[in-house]
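stage 2 :: seqdesign
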C-alpha cells in the first residue's frame, strides 16, 4: 500500500527541526536555500549532511562547486528563512541583495546574524528520488552567537524555545 503525499507531510510536519540556510558559490555566483533536512553525521571526522531537491538552483551550484556552508538560523530570523525558501519570488534572482554575509574557507557565504556555521566540502552524494543527500567534510566551523536561541520549525510554523537555557 502506497503512502499518500498528504499523510507523509502530516506526519513529517510534527517532526521539530532547526532551520538552516545552505549557501554555496560557483564561478562567482552565490546562492542559497532554506533547509531543515540537515544533520550531523560523525564527529570523527567531522561530517554533516543535507538533502537538496535536484530541481533547486542551489543544488546545481553545490553539485558543480563541491562546496557548501550550513548557516544555523537563530530565533528572529524568520524573514531570512522565508527569503531563502523562495517565498519572495521577486527576490529569487538575487537572494543576497541587502543580506550581510562574508565568505568562509570554501568561499561559500556565511550569513551575518546566524547562530553559527559549518563550512564544508562535498565528499559524497547519494541521489534518491527527487533529492540528493550531500555529505560534507567540515572545513571550518564557528559558533557566532552562543547565547542566542535557535529558530525552530514545527507543524508548518516557526517556533521558539520558551526557555532555551
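stage 2 :: out
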Amino acid at each position: 500500500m502506497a503512502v499518500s503525499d498528504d499523510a507523509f507531510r502530516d506526519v513529517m510536519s510534527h517532526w521539530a527541526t532547526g532551520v538552516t540556510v545552505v549557501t554555496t558559490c560557483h564561478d562567482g555566483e552565490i546562492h542559497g536555500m532554506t533547509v531543515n533536512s540537515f544533520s550531523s553525521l560523525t564527529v570523527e571526522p567531522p561530517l554533516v549532511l543535507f538533502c537538496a531537491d535536484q530541481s533547486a538552483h542551489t543544488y546545481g551550484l553545490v553539485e558543480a562547486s563541491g562546496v557548501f556552508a550550513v548557516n544555523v538560523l537563530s530565533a528572529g530570523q524568520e524573514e531570512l528563512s522565508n527569503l531563502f525558501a523562495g517565498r519572495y519570488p521577486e527576490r529569487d534572482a538575487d537572494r543576497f541583495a541587502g543580506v550581510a554575509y562574508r565568505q568562509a574557507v570554501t568561499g561559500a557565504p556565511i550569513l551575518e546574524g546566524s547562530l553559527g556555521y559549518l563550512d564544508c566540502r562535498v565528499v559524497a552524494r547519494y541521489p534518491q528520488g527527487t533529492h540528493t543527500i550531500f555529505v560534507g567534510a567540515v572545513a571550518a566551523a564557528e559558533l557566532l552567537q552562543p547565547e542566542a536561541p535557535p529558530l525552530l520549525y514545527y507543524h508548518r510554523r516557526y517556533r521558539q524555545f520558551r526557555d532555551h537555557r
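stage 3 :: structure notes
- The mean pLDDT is 92.
- The domain at 17-155 is CATH 2.30.110.10 (Pnp Oxidase; Chain A).
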